[in-house]
Amino acid sequence: MKVKEYIARFLEAKEIDTVFLLQGGMITNLVDSIHEITSILGVTVQHEQAAAMAVDAYGKVSHKPAVALATSGPGATNLITGIASCFFDSVPAIFITGQVNTTQLKRNPFARQTGFQETDIINIAAPITKAVFSVWVAYQIPDILEKAYALSMQGRPGPVLIDIPIDIQMQEMNDLIIPIDDVVLSEENKKESDLVFFKKYYVDLQKSKRPLILVGGGVRSSSELFKEFLHRYQIPVVLSLLGLDVLPYTHPERVGFIGTYGNRWANTTLADCDLLLVLGSRMDSRQTASIKEFKQGKKIYHIDIDYNELNNNITGCETSEADLSLFFEDAIALNRIYKAPVKWKNTIQLERDTNSDTSELDCKGINPNVFIHELSKSSGLAKGFTTDVGANQMWSAQSIELSKNQFFLTSGGMGAMGYSLPAAIGACFASGISPVVAIVGDGGMQINIQELQTIRRYNLPIKIVVLNNRSLGMIRQFQDAYFGGRHVSTVDNPPSFVNIASAYEIERYYIESEEDIQNGLERMWMFPNSPFLLEVFIDTETNISPKVMFGDSLKSK
Fold it and tell me: Which of 91, 84, 61, 82 is nearest to 451 (CA)?
């Protein structure tokens, strides 16, 4: 058995059913083996960045790693943005890059390059991965593959990268092969729950008048346990950007989306609470705004599986380094019951009724928040939604109505424009080729627009919604606030996206007024299992509101 064949069989034995790739010289042997001797589906994309972002979304949906393959040099470096997105958002992923023959690798560390397209991807990717592995001899392969697979999912999940020269891919394994699953790592086993921590929290909870839970993306993999926890401990919940799909829109404890662009009533609730339990969120600067104002008047309990995230941006917290699934199991097993004060819940509801998201904007034409609500209501057949980065992302986060088990995927920590389209592809495959809605702005659409070919090639049921405001809207709003309205490199005259969809033979429609929203949505879902592009024109001057300015309180107007 050659190394390339061992890798293919290893991936299949680990039940990895999908690899994303753009073919290239240094991976042709490996790709051919995967195709010939396994049932793994090789999904061909048009750019390696799209492969990495598809892997990101696949991991977020399935909670297990998918694989991206890329050739040496530009193929490997094109993965970087997607690798970083996996790293910052804690997504399990395996990246395998081909490398030039070992005889062509530079020997002089000060030399730029020896082999054609030779690039030191190991040192480039090291800061944004959990681990990188460079294969120098064939007998390393079994151990490296086991370690890479385990590391991608253990503790805080994340990406790993394996770089394999092409001549090693072709070497015989002979008696070097070891049984799959022989290597077991123990250094990142699940962190035990801390009952002392919970009991201390429970004492404060009983004294609290305004308790609140802040949920981040770390809860997504144990969302069902969290719902059971909430059934017993009925406490209002605010959601970060990456935690939006932990609770459905109609859940009785769901308050709303928080942060710099969060729902006004949710931000007010977060600012006014006196006891805050933070689950699987690092409380970054977009969630907290002014740190001093954020901490004022409240006691904070913070749980995370990664010790380095505790007392980091927000200090002075009661902390527990624990696996959330075990924490929920232990809290449930205590068999205690709690209900937040009725007065507090009534106050939250009054804030919501007074400051609805659809009344925030005074805009011409289509109100994007109104549109997102209507899109949600019409998209019951969708497994979930992906968004790009920018105004489209924030309007969606403010107003999306997720039903039970629908996902919401976006690039959080990395904030990479161009994410939505390839993410929808990865999510679609992870969901068994089920419909997915990809929400994207005109700016982000053009970054990975070539993936319309991937959608067409596989006839994926992806519904693409382009919110076209003819600008990079979030930056344009920033320029209005800080640069006297000088719209340098933001306002544009983009192409007709329906015409581009036509070139890819994808059905399409565009809408320019609120009166045409229902017609457009009905057309989009007329054939649920086919791709569709809906272009929605938003006035260029339409802002995102509320918008908390840098250094201000979450309650600032």
Answer: 82
Its pTM stands at 0.94
> Residue 46 corresponds to which tokens in the numbers above?
């048009």
Fold of 3-176: Rossmann fold (3.40.50)
Judged by DSSP in three states, 527 sits in coil
Reading the block at residue 123, the tokens are: 């040192």
Contacts of 118 (CB under 8 A, 6+ apart): 72, 73, 99, 100, 104, 105, 106
Instruction: Give the DSSP H or E segment for 275.
Output: strand 275-279
- DSSP 8-state assignment for residue 193: P
312-350: per-residue pLDDT in tens?
988 999 999 989 999 999 999 988 999 999 999 999 999
Tell the CATH superfamily of the 359-537 domain. Answer: Thiamin diphosphate (ThDP)-binding fold, Pyr/PP domains (3.40.50.970)
- Spatial separation of the C-alpha atoms in residues 246 and 97, rounded to whole Å: 34
Measuring CA to CA, which residue among 127, 31, 115 is closest to residue 73? 115
Domain ranges in the chain are 3-176, 195-355, 359-537
Q: What is the mean pLDDT of residues 24-51?
A: 96
In angstroms, the CA 5 to CA 34 distance is 7
Torsion of CA 44, 47, 49, 54, to 10 degrees: -30
Separation of alpha carbons 67 and 10, rounded Å = 12
**Cα angle 277-61-78, degrees, rounded to a multiple of 5:** 105
Q: How far apart are CA 281 and CA 270, in angstroms?
A: 14
Q: Which residues, in sequence order, are CB contacts of 111 under 8 Å at separation 6+?
A: none
Report whether 370 contacts 515 (CB < 8 A).
Answer: no
